[in-house]
Amino acid sequence: MALKSTIFKANVAVADIDHNYYADHSLTLARHPSENDERMMIRLMALALNAWKLQDLVQGDGTLTFGAGLSNVEEPDVWLRDFTGEVKLWVEVGQPEDKPIIKACGKADEVIVYCYSHAAGIWWKGIENKLTRPQNLQVWRIPSETSQAVAMLAERSMQLQATVHENTLTLGNGAESIDIELARLK
């Protein structure tokens, strides 16, 4: 018998001071049976970091949603599509292989990878030379201590505040907050 995804609900108040974007997002996250809280929360964090692009890239006339991710390798973890279905933003989390990243760069205007965990540095050293060509690719690293702390915020029903200021994301639930400083690798 196949295991089913676990459903999480999150209301995220995004205040992106850097991009003058303020909005509430009501989200449903389906956590794949093989996915842990850390990866799921990194997906949520990636959506919050890029929410401003909903207004900036498609003037609010599009959808910023979670893709099938682990359930379907043909979809990203997060994506932004305009009203015609054109993919404006493709986001992957973790340490994906080079070929799917390059393929995504051909499908979307912009591709962002958020890598995390203690193995992220090793992954990047092994893949960096293969990803020099795509000009529409960004790779960001989240420190493993930070990604583990973000995982502690995971609950089946979440009320979160995400504030972006001076390239730092502060993610909190009212009782705890975590400052997330990302390092750009590409």
Automatic annotation (TrEMBL):
- What InterPro entries does this protein map onto? Restrct_endonuc-II-like (IPR011335), YaeQ (IPR009822), YaeQ_sf (IPR038590)
- TM stretches of this protein: none
Q: Which residues form the signal peptide?
A: none
Q: State the name under which the record lists this protein.
A: YaeQ family protein
Species, as recorded: Variovorax humicola
Upper classification of the source organism reads: Bacteria, Pseudomonadati, Pseudomonadota, Betaproteobacteria, Burkholderiales
